[in-house]
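Support reply, case 0932

Customer input (verbatim):
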Amino acid sequence: MSSAFSNRAMSLWRRLLPVFLGVAVFVLMTGGNMLAPGNVSWLQHQDLAQSYLGWAFYRHGPWGWPLGAHPSYGLEFHSSVFYSDSIPLMAMALKPFSPWLPEPFQYFGLWVLMCFVLQAVFAWRLLSLATPGAVARTLGCVFFLLAPPLLFRLGGHMALFAHWPILAALLLYLEPLPRRQDVAWTCLVAASMVIHAYIFVMVAAVWAADLLRRAWTVRDDRSVAAWLPLMQEVAQVVAVTVAVAWLAGFFMVPGGGMGASGFGFYKMNLLAPVNGGGWSWFGLQTPQALGEYEGFNYLGVGAVLLCLAAAAAQLAGALKKNDSGLTVWPLLLAALGLTLLALTPHLGIGAWQGTLPLPGALERKLSHSSIQSTGRLFWVAYYALLVWAFFALARALPSRAFITVLVVLVSLQLLDLGPGLVRWRQQIVQRTQADEASALRGPFWDAAGERYKRLRLVPTRVLAPNWEVLARYALKHRMPTDAVQVARANWKVFNRVHDEQLKRLAEGRPEEDTLYVLDADSVEVATRAARAQDAVFQLDGWTVLAPGWGVDVPAEAMDLKSGL
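Our regenerated output:
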């Protein structure tokens, strides 16, 4: 009985070890401060503010259809938790509990912790396919948990910190489930859609490779019974993914608004895997073009040597064949295709930049697609490369020699990344300990927040300077606003609203229940057209049009109408 209990305890320990690893690295890299749900001070600027404020407006807004819609964040041109990058998976799950959640409340720290843990769990499962040894798998997890492309996303892209769906997809490919593979893929592909569009593209690519792998195994069977499960799976995955995308508000932006600029600019340099970009203690650094920071995919010295050693073992014939019986070329094809997209159409090799000609129709389509930061698409190949290298060495070396090699490589990896990890941790910890961000306070702002129902920028803009200050003010007073940042917008409606608001102010017809913040180009027009009961003044660095406010402007304000 003692032996059985000991075996169960050891089995439980092995199951929990990757969880502990994930938690430990989370604390190591973040200090843990971001986990406090009331700590929103680190979510006050740029992309982090977009994600948090998108959630904060959404949680206080009424339910609508689709469920992810929150028109209070964006007004007429609408937005949703999908386009505010608020991780719809989390936002939609927590909105029903909003009345009982504290104010303020953020889940992004919890999300980061979950991502670290799941990254460790799926890495552990992947590595277990190569070796049963807990020591070897623990060492191997270091390459996945401290992967520079993963940690780099802590700088501002919380949704893109979820690399674990890519690992889960690789696991489903390399270790197909004996039953209900279709259900697993349906859940994973649909979940990735409500995490982030780029994660979805990469997971969907691995799923397509898995479909091709299974289709290849039955290619000579013409019976309906052989092909029907694959066709049913395709229909099931597509239907469920489209449904959850609609619920999250993905289709609120029409096709014309999905396009963005940046294709061929936010790409990956061919030398990215060996370009430390300031993270390498050994000084691995290569030149790159301006936008190629989105393709930051540094492996680290230890991981580079791991791959080289695996390649040497492969060439030496130590790994003579794929003895698992698994067809891997569809996965290689998917990884290669995504890598080519990450590199093109302007190929960079260090400082040298050239052009890879694409068919005209394809290049036009890609240049107007919603996937513009193509440098991220290398992540599938990045992790597949690590998994392959681990497999190759595990099969080529005896267990003790394999662990010895891993200890050396992990030590080199930590030595190489150490200074960069320390600096990155300091930045993250300092950000999570930041003081309260600047806010609009004072008698006028408090009174205006009670009086007016909306806050508008004129002209209507996305990502206006200091938009976060206005959005926080609007949130405090529960005022819908167009002072927002969103990933995509309904530009047709946006342009109509832009022109309509300018026309209203030029004709002296402001909305009575709306507080306006004017930019320098619209001040004179609005001031000359303002009615007698409207106040136009500068206060705290902002130019304000307050319809129906009267002539008594705040004492500390500069009245702009008095100079006419």
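We compared this against your earlier run and they match. Two observations from our side: The first strand starts at residue 346 and ends at 349. The two ends are 94 Å apart (CA to CA). Please reopen the case if you see a mismatch on your end.
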